[in-house]
Amino acid sequence: MGAYRKVGSYFYTLIILHFPLMFHKFVLVKLYKKTGGGITLSGGEPLFCPEFSYEILKGSDEIQIDDLIYDSRKVVKGTAFVCLKGFNTDGHKYAADAIEKGASALIVSDEIETDADITIIKVENTRSALAVMSTALFSNPANELTTIAITGTKGKTSTSTLIYGMVKQSGKKACLIGNIGVPVLDTLEDGEPEVAVIEMSSHQLEFTTASPHIAIMTNIYPEHLDHYNGFSGYVAAKLNIIRHQVGCDYFICNAEQDFEQYYNFSKTPVSVIKVSKNGGKADKNLIAAANGNERLKGIHNQQNVCVAATAARCLGVSDEDILTAVENFGGIENRMEPIGEFYGIRFYNDSIATIPHAVECAIEAIGDVDTLIFGGLDRGIDYSGFKRYLRKCRVRNLIGTPDTGIEICKALIEGGCTKNI
Question: Tens digits of per-residue pLDDT, 9-54?
């Protein structure tokens, strides 16, 4: 494969379950080079928007391109190979393989030396180029959609799903896509929604060069520090969600976190709305509905509900529709999910809780947790606060699994913790 990234791990959980890894879908597009008219798609759309610069380094600009792909194993005669730079490898290393398999063109960001009869198109960033070409394939759907994008360390999926439910309840056509597990381009094939609710991870935002009409940051806590080499890099990726907004857009964030220490909001023309989990007068019934929903327990979910309601109101959704959506919310898989009762013991799956703060929120929300099973990959997070919490909380039995769970349990025992470990 030219350049790829495998994503999937578990970390902190009440009950650890294995779940399938998610992979990015291959993007295949039909292209051809139109004489005198620039590179275009088969439907006549320009391959690159006018402001996107590219240079033909080698070869003819009168070629037929049948497919655009970035997996070198799938290259066949007549295709163009996009050399993506990944986290573990570089697609440029596989250019020779693509040429040998009959590729008609290479899209590169670095110089490629070859004697082969092939067209080489150079762009500044091949990942950005792939995004531009993919949107062109679908006739730039964002121009016809109202986009809401949600990011944050925790609460993304719950907030995204709540917003989607609220918008649907109002009668608008909506789709829920992105990091939630639904590829963006798949949904566009199924119809023409009015509103796109998009969950976005830091990895997706790291390469983003556009912003939504409504951008939401649920919260920010240290995570993925192994990838970003520190908290500042992680925050910078997350804040790409707002960097390209314009005057008619909205940025909704957590009022209880000081985002101004990370971003100078005086530089942005957007409307900034800070939302508190305590809500306002208009949210009293909303919070009561959340408290009455078994799958929206906890103060953190009150915050998610208030943020979602704020976004829905920006689209003109009524409080009645918002309230109905909260009452009908069915919960998120792997997030404080009841999985059964055995011998009088209730079990919850919380494997989406990948940072200590999320585990603490779940324990407090469920209320009577007696045993905690936790562990997983060390992501470079400081666990000292979590150790203090485990010493003081009501949980009596602690079961640690590799890697972090065992290390934390060892530290608790060495520190004199008297719980069952």
Answer: 333 334 322 222 222 233 333 333 333 345 555 555 666 666 678 8
Peptide bond into 403 cis (omega under 30): yes
Contact 399, 405 (CB under 8 A): yes
Q: Answer whether 298's CB lies under 8 Å from 275's CB.
A: no
Quick one: CA torsion of 239, 332, 166, 322, rounded to 10 degrees? -100
Model pTM score: 0.76
Please give the Cα distance from 129 to 86 (Å, whole number).
14
Residues in the chain: 421
382 CB-contact burial (10 Å; exposed 0-12 / middle 13-18 / buried 19+): exposed
Query: Alpha-carbon dihedral of residues 196, 199, 203, 209, nearest 10 degrees?
Result: 30
The phi, psi pair for 290, rounded to 5°, reads -65, -45
- Nearest-angstrom CA–CA distance, 49 and 209: 13
Question: For residues 251 and 245, what is the distance between their CA atoms, to the nearest angstrom?
Answer: 9
Instruction: Choose among 256, 261, 327: nearest CA to 295.
Output: 327
Across-strand partners of 65? 31
Residue that is written with structure tokens 């650890």 in the block: 16
CA distances (Å), 45 to each of 11, 48, 301, in order? 44, 9, 44
Are the C-beta atoms of residues 2 and 82 closer than 8 Å to each other? yes
SS3 at position 260: helix
Residue 149 CA, chain-centre distance (Å), reads: 9
